[in-house]
Amino acid sequence: MGLTGIQIFKMLPKTNCAECGVPTCLAFAMNLAAGKAELDSCPYVSDEAREQLAEASAPPIRPVAIGAGTRAFKIGGETVMFRHEKTFYNPTALAAMVSSDMDSKALDKKLKEWNALQYERVGLNLRPELVAVKDANGDAAAFAGVAKKIAEESEFGLVLMTDNLEAMKTAVDGCAFKKPLLYAATADNVEEMGNLAKETGLPLAVRGDNVDDLIALSDKLTGMGLKDLVLDSGAREIKGLFQDQVAMRRAPLKAANKSLGFPTITFPCEMAGNLDMETLIASMLIAKYAGLAVLSDFKGESLFPLLLERLNIFTDPQRPMTVTEGIYEIGAPDENSPVLVTTNFSLTYFIVGGEIEGSRVPSWLLVMDTEGLSVMTAWAAGKFAGDAVAMFVKKCGIADKVAHKNIIIPGYAASISGEMEEDLPDWKVTIGPRDASLIPKFLKDMAK
User: Fold this and answer.
1) For residue 65, what is the DSSP state?
2) What is the DSSP-derived secondary structure letter of residue 345?
3) Parallel/antiparallel/unpaired status of strands 119-121 and 124-126
4) How far apart, in whole angstroms, are the C-alpha atoms of residue 267 and residue 249?
5) What's the pTM?
6) Which segments does the entry list as coiled coil (predicted)?
């Protein structure tokens, strides 16, 4: 950590091959310095430079990958204390707890209910990631059976929670393919759990009685060659946990303390007597600065606000949310359906799209890339100008889908109609309403 983009650029091959996904080595170096690219994306970097850069460009809080398949994710990898300084990258993972002595039918019911908790929001699928399986009575077979069932029959990732080494080994044998998080190495079993994590290549949680204990355990495990660690300070009281979370974030970022340079795991389920209070605690931890929060259950009324909070916090504040440029079909339009155009700011798209859908008039919606700006802002910035919109209409292919040449532009951009008509002489440019809420009436009146 600490190298600038220019310093990184000097160690790159400077071929500008674009195989890393960006057009130049300088652009790749800038992304690497900002934590937005992986060094492995460059196929031509020398072994010597790779060794230097891997250490120098690594984020102060190591990213740790957990899970496999559709709900695989990373925690950690953060580079700043506060979101406004830059951005937060890897959202807090959410887990719900089950006991190893849970009845099979009850577990089936839970998994079915939890899997249904998925929400579409600004084009994203918001959902929880993990199930934490807690060893209830030391029965290795029962613990492994529940873990295997979840791994094989659901999309959820796993946290395996037991101090019993044999139970952990048995469970890992049945679900290692899901890349579970092993919880936890303690002062009593640190070498055994460390060796198991090293043999299996799985991430390992470390639990101490306090932050000082964690430092000692973390140093011992990293000395064994382990890198993918997740830290639990042991605090189960709100004030103490809050202080620990801030201290454990600050230490690697401000004091270069590598012993604490890992994401954290927290347990709201052990800090409250009801799910409502757990949810309040989890909301604090999403902001300050948990990598993973374990709840006693998932319920829509508590999970949805946590997912929304997480979405808002882990969105780049310097970059608007966007949708992909292109042609969107709303309500199965045909060749005679109206054509509207708007910008790719996600909020604009979903408001306009929702109003069109509510009108029950099947329509084509052209979404133009304006770098995430709303209609008014994009127009004022010259990114939704008449010539640019006309060029987009020509190249997007809508002319091949409709039998008419009539396009509806937002009322706020009425002034671009003349320029559009010059560049699109075969098209009629209709000025639509200024307010999206008037779109349904506008489309219905047109359809008469």
Assistant:
1) E
2) B
3) antiparallel
4) 17
5) 0.77
6) none
360: alpha, beta or left, given left = phi > 0 and alpha = psi -120 to 50?
A: left
Looking at CATH, the fold of the domain delimited by 326-447 is given as: Rossmann fold (3.40.50)
Does 374 show up as a binding residue in the annotation? yes
Residue 17 annotated as binding? yes
Q: Is 348 annotated as a binding residue?
A: yes
Confirm or deny that 372 is annotated as ligand binding.
Answer: yes
CATH homologous superfamily, domain 64-313 = Dihydropteroate synthase-like (3.20.20.20)
What is the per-residue DSSP string for 190-226?
A: HHHHHHHHHHHT--EEEE-SSHHHHHHHHHHHHHTT-
**CATH domain 5-56 topology:** 3-methyladenine DNA Glycosylase II; Chain A, domain 3 (1.10.15)
Give the whole-angstrom CA distance, residue 365 versus residue 33: 38
**Residue partners of 70: CB distance under 8 A and separation at least 6:** 155
Please check if 20 is assigned to a binding site: yes
Is 291 among the annotated ligand-binding positions?
A: no
| Residue 247 pLDDT | 97
396 is in an annotated binding site: no
Residue 374 near residue 342 (C-beta atoms within 8 A):
no
Determine if residue 342 is labeled as part of a ligand binding site. yes
Q: Is 269 annotated as a binding residue?
A: no
